[in-house]
Write a structure and sequence with these properties.
about 800 residues, alpha/beta, Rossmann fold, 10-stranded mixed β-sheet, 25 strands
Length: about 800
C-alpha cells in the first residue's frame, strides 16, 4: 500500500484522496513493474554469467491484452494487491477494468506469441520477444447500422505505464539510397551506401513475469523516430508542415498495425515496418553479442532467431548484411552462421498469406538487402537445379525470386535450420503440398510443434471456480506447472456431485457474462439457453457464414413448423474484419441484420437469440470463454493451420462442434467421437471434390431447406438490405470459385451435428460428463508443452 501511495505522489503529484482511477491504475502498474524489473536484471546477469543461449522471438504481433492482473497473478500478488487497492478506497475490479487491452495483434498469431512469452519465462528459458511499438493497435470496432466502423485504439496513454524506454540502446535503420561496390588496396571488398534516409528505432521494453520463478524476460517494442524531428530552417521560414515532414514520415512506421496494402503506398509502409523492426532487432542482438564475446563467429552457438510467420523474414538478409559488410566475413562463413541461427514457424497454407513482395519495391526501398536476396536466390537456384536436374517446374515452385516477386516463405525454407508447422495436420500439408519438394530434398528440416495456450491465464486466472474445483479434485495445484496433471480429473467423470458442481460453475460464469453484456450494450441474454459461441477473426475460411446459414434455417423452421425441435440457443459472435476485406465486412453486416430480425421476432422468444459482440478483444474473451458451452470451430478442412481459441474453450469445459481441421484433429483424437460433435468433409475429400470440379449449385437445387436459406440472403431481412452478392458468391463465384470454402457441401452434416449437440444438451448428466472429459484431456494443449517442444527440437536450450 505504501508503495502505491509513493508512486502516486512521485509520479502524479497526488495523494490518494485526489487520485483518479486512471492514476491509481498506473501507480499500481508501476509498482508491479518495479518488482519485475528487479527480477529481469538478475535474470540478465545470470544469463551473462552462464553464457546461456538466447532465444529471440520475432513477431509482427503480440496480443498481450491486459497486464496488471496477469502480472500480479504470476508474481503471487493478486490477493495483497487487491487488498491494498480496496484499503485505499478504490474497487479492485473496477481498477483492473481501467487498463486498456494492449492490442498489438490481429488474432491468434499475436495471442499465441503472448502465450509463448509467458510459458518460456515460466520454464526459465531466456527469451526476448520483438515487435513494433504500435501507437494504435488493432482498431476499435464500432457497429453502426449493422456495419463495422474502425476507430483508432490509442492504448499507450495508460498502457505505456508498463514500458521502459532505453534511449541508449537506440538503433539506426536505413531506407533507400544507392549502393556501390568498393574495392580496397588490399583486394578486399566493401559497400558504400549513400543517399539513404535514416529512421531511429527506440526500444521500449515490457517486462514479462513468469509463474513461480525468479526468471523475467522482455518484450522489446521498437518505436520509430526521426533523427531530426524539426527542420528549423523551414520552420523559421514559416513552412511549418514541411518542417515536421521528416518526423511524420519516420513515425508513421510505428503508427498503426497492418496498414492497408491494396495500394503501393500501403505495401511500401508494410515493408518498411518489417525491415524496421528486424533491422533494429538484429543490430541490437549483434551489438550486445560482440560486446560480450568480441566476435560474431560464435553467434549461432549463442542465439536462435525464431521467425513467427513470414513477416520477420528480412532478418535473414539483414544478418547477412551485418556479417558481410560490417564484419567482413566471406559469404560462406556468413551463410554458415545465419543458416544455423534462424528458424521459421509457418502459420498458414493460404497462398495469399505467404508473403510476396514486388521486386522493384524491395530494390528501391532496401537496395543492399535486395542485392543479398538476389545472391541467396541465385545460389539456391543453382543447388536446386543440380538436385532436380534442371526441372523448371520444381525450380518455379521453390524459387525465392520469380516473376518479379520476392517469395518470403521460400527464403525462410532456404535459409532456416528448422521449419515447423503448428498442428499435426498442418505440418503434414506443408510436407505433402505447400513445401512438398523442399521436404523431399531436406526432410530433417521439417518439424511439428502443435500450438498451445497459456493455461494459467485461460483457465486458472479467468475461471477461478473451475480452478478451485480442479485443485479440490486433484488434491493440489500442480497442473499449473504440469498441465498433464489435469488427467487426474477424469477419475470424477461419473461423480454426480462433481458434475453438478461443474454445471453450477458454468451457470455462474454465464450469469457473470450476461451481466457484463447488459452493462456494456443493454442486451439481456437468456442464460437458460445454450451459449453457442464463435469468436475469431472474420475470414471466409473460418466460415462464420455457415453458422449464419444454419441460424437462418432455424428461424425459417420455427415459422414453418410450430413443433420444430429446437434446444434454446443464444448464438454469440465476435469478430473483426480487416478494413479492406469487403466480403468479410459484408458478412458482419449480415450477422447484425439477422440478429436484429431474430431478436425482434416473437416466434423466436426464449428459443433463439443472436448477438454480435462489438469490439471483440482479449479482455472480453476472458469473461466469455468460461461462460461458453458450445465452441464453433468450423473452418474448411485443410485451411486452419491450428487454431488456439479451440483449446481455450476446451480447457473451460465447452464442447466443440467442428471439422477435422487444424488442431481440431488432435483434440478429436484426445476426446473421441463421443465427446466431440464432428461434421464435414475431410481434407482429402475437399481436395478430391476440388479436383473433380465442385458444383455448389447442385447442393442448392437438391436441398429445399438449403435453397430457402440461400434465397433468403437475396431477399434480406427486416432492415431491407439484400445479401444477393453473398448468395451469388456461394452459387456462382465472383472472381473466385463458387463456394470456395464448401459451405453448401457441409451444410447438411453441420445441421445434423447441431441437432445432436442440442439433444445432448437436454441431458445434463451426459453433457457435463463430456465437459469434464474435455477439461481433463486438455493439458497437452498448454503453451508449456509447445515451448518445451521448441526448446528440445528446434532451439536446443535447457528448460525447467
Amino acid at each position: 500500500m505504501d508503495l502505491i501511495i509513493g508512486k502516486l505522489r512521485r509520479n502524479f503529484g497526488r495523494d490518494v484522496d485526489e487520485a483518479t482511477s486512471q492514476q491509481m491504475f498506473q501507480a499500481c502498474a508501476l509498482v508491479v513493474r518495479d518488482i519485475i524489473s528487479e527480477r529481469q536484471l538478475k535474470s540478465a546477469d545470470k544469463e551473462r554469467d552462464e553464457h546461456a543461449r538466447q532465444v529471440h522471438y520475432l513477431s509482427m504481433e503480440f496480443l498481450m491484452g491486459r497486464s496488471l492482473r496477469k502480472n500480479a497473478y504470476n508474481l503471487g500478488m493478486v490477493k495483497p494487491l487487491t487488498q491494498a487497492i480496496e484499503a485505499l478506497g478504490f474497487s479492485a475490479a473496477d481498477l483492473f477494468e481501467e487498463e486498456p487491452d494492449a492490442g498489438l495483434g490481429n488474432g491468434g498469431l499475436g495471442r499465441l506469441a503472448a502465450c509463448y512469452l509467458d510459458a518460456a519465462t515460466t520454464l526459465d528459458i531466456p527469451l526476448t520477444g520483438y515487435t513494433i511499438c504500435y501507437e494504435l493497435g488493432i482498431f476499435k470496432q464500432k457497429i453502426v447500422d449493422g456495419q463495422q466502423i474502425e476507430l483508432p485504439d490509442n492504448w499507450l496513454d495508460r498502457g505505456g505505464a508498463w514500458l521502459i524506454t532505453k534511449m541508449d540502446e537506440t538503433e539506426e535503420v536505413r531506407f533507400g539510397g544507392t549502393v556501390k561496390d568498393v574495392w580496397y588496396p588490399d583486394g578486399s571488398h566493401g559497400i558504400d551506401h549513400s543517399g539513404y534516409t535514416t529512421v531511429l528505432a527506440v526500444p521500449r521494453d515490457m517486462q514479462i513475469a513468469g509463474y513461480k520463478t525468479n526468471q523475467a524476460n522482455v518484450l522489446r517494442l521498437w518505436d520509430a523516430k526521426s533523427p531530426t524531428p524539426v527542420d528549423m530552417s523551414l520552420y523559421s521560414a514559416g513552412e511549418y508542415l514541411k518542417a515536421v515532414e521528416q518526423q511524420a514520415n519516420a513515425e508513421v512506421i510505428s503508427k498503426v498495425l497492418y496498414p492497408e496494402d491494396n495500394h503501393r503506398e500501403g505495401k511500401s509502409l508494410r515493408l518498411k515496418q518489417q525491415y524496421f523492426f528486424v533491422s533494429a532487432t538484429v543490430q541490437s542482438i549483434c551489438r550486445k553479442h560482440k560486446a560480450e564475446y568480441g566476435t560474431l563467429r560464435n553467434f549461432h552457438e549463442k542465439h536462435v532467431l525464431q521467425i513467427n510467420d513470414t513477416h520477420p523474414t528480412l532478418v535473414i538478409p539483414e544478418l547477412m548484411r551485418i556479417l558481410l559488410d560490417q564484419e567482413g566475413y566471406s559469404w560462406e562463413d556468413a551463410w554458415y552462421i545465419v543458416s544455423r541461427s534462424v528458424a521459421y514457424t509457418n502459420h498458414t497454407v493460404l497462398s495469399e498469406a505467404l508473403e510476396r513482395w514486388p521486386q522493384d519495391l524491395v530494390e528501391s526501398l532496401l537496395p543492399r538487402i535486395w542485392q543479398i536476396i538476389v545472391e541467396i536466390s541465385n545460389r539456391y537456384q543453382s543447388e536446386l537445379s543440380a538436385y532436380w536436374n534442371g526441372d523448371q517446374s520444381k525450380l518455379e515452385k521453390l524459387a525465392i525470386i520469380w516473376g518479379h516477386e520476392v517469395r518470403m516463405a521460400n527464403l525462410c525454407v532456404c535459409a532456416c535450420s528448422a521449419v515447423n508447422g503448428v498442428s499435426a495436420l498442418h505440418t503434414e500439408i506443408l510436407k505433402t503440398d505447400v513445401f512438398k519438394d523442399a521436404y523431399q530434398r531436406q526432410p530433417d528440416k521439417f518439424h511439428n510443434v502443435t500450438n498451445g495456450v497459456d493455461h494459467r491465464r485461460w483457465l486458472s486466472e479467468v475461471n477461478p471456480e473451475l480452478d478451485a474445483l480442479i485443485i479440490d479434485c486433484c488434491g493440489s495445484d500442480k497442473y499449473l506447472l504440469q498441465p498433464d496433471a489435469l488427467t487426474e480429473l477424469e477419475k470424477f467423470a461419473d461423480d454426480a456431485a462433481v458434475l453438478e458442481k461443474l454445471a453450477d460453475i458454468k451457470k455462474h460464469n454465464k450469469a457473470r457474462f450476461a451481466a457484463w453484456v447488459q452493462r456494456e450494450s443493454g442486451v439481456l441474454l437468456n442464460t437458460d439457453a445454450m451459449f453457442d459461441v464463435q469468436v475469431k477473426r472474420l475470414h471466409e475460411y473460418k466460415r462464420q457464414l455457415l453458422n449464419a446459414l444454419h441460424i437462418i434455417y432455424l428461424w425459417q423452421q420455427l415459422h414453418a413448423n410450430p413443433n420444430f425441435e429446437l434446444t434454446p440457443r443464444v448464438y454469440l459472435f465476435g469478430a473483426k474484419a480487416a478494413p479492406g476485406y469487403a466480403v468479410a465486412k459484408e458478412i458482419i453486416h449480415l450477422l447484425n441484420s439477422l440478429a436484429d430480425t431474430v431478436n425482434k421476432d416473437p416466434v423466436c422468444k426464449d428459443k433463439l437469440q443472436m448477438v454480435f459482440l462489438e469490439n471483440y478483444r482479449v479482455s472480453m474473451a476472458e469473461t466469455l470463454i468460461p461462460a461458453s458451452e458450445l465452441s464453433e470451430q468450423i473452418s474448411t478442412a485443410g485451411k486452419e493451420a491450428s487454431g488456439t481459441s479451440n483449446m481455450k474453450f476446451m480447457m473451460n469445459g465447452a464442447l466443440t462442434i467442428g471439422t477435422l481441421d487444424g488442431a481440431n484433429v488432435e483434440m478429436h483424437q484426445r476426446v473421441g467421437d463421443e465427446n466431440f460433435f464432428l461434421f464435414g468433409l475431410k481434407t482429402e475429400e475437399v481436395n478430391e471434390m476440388r479436383r473433380r470440379g465442385y458444383k455448389s449449385y447442385e447442393y442448392y437445387m437438391q436441398n429445399p431447406a438449403l435453397k430457402a436459406v440461400i434465397d433468403q440472403l437475396t431477399v434480406g431481412f427486416d432492415d431491407g438490405v439484400s445479401y444477393a452478392g453473398l448468395a451469388k458468391r456461394l452459387l456462382f463465384g465472383n472472381g473466385c470459385p463458387p463456394d470456395e470454402y464448401f459451405l453448401l457441401a457441409d451444410f447438411e452434416s453441420y445441421r445434423s451435428a447441431q441437432l445432436s449437440a442440442g439433444r445432448t444438451y437436454l441431458d445434463p448428466k451426459t453433457w457435463n460428463r463430456m465437459s469434464l472429459i474435455n477439461i481433463a484431456r486438455s493439458g497437452i494443449f498448454a503453451a508449456d508443452r509447445s515451448i518445451r517442444d521448441y526448446a528440445d527440437e528446434i532451439w536446443h536450450v535447457p528448460h525447467r
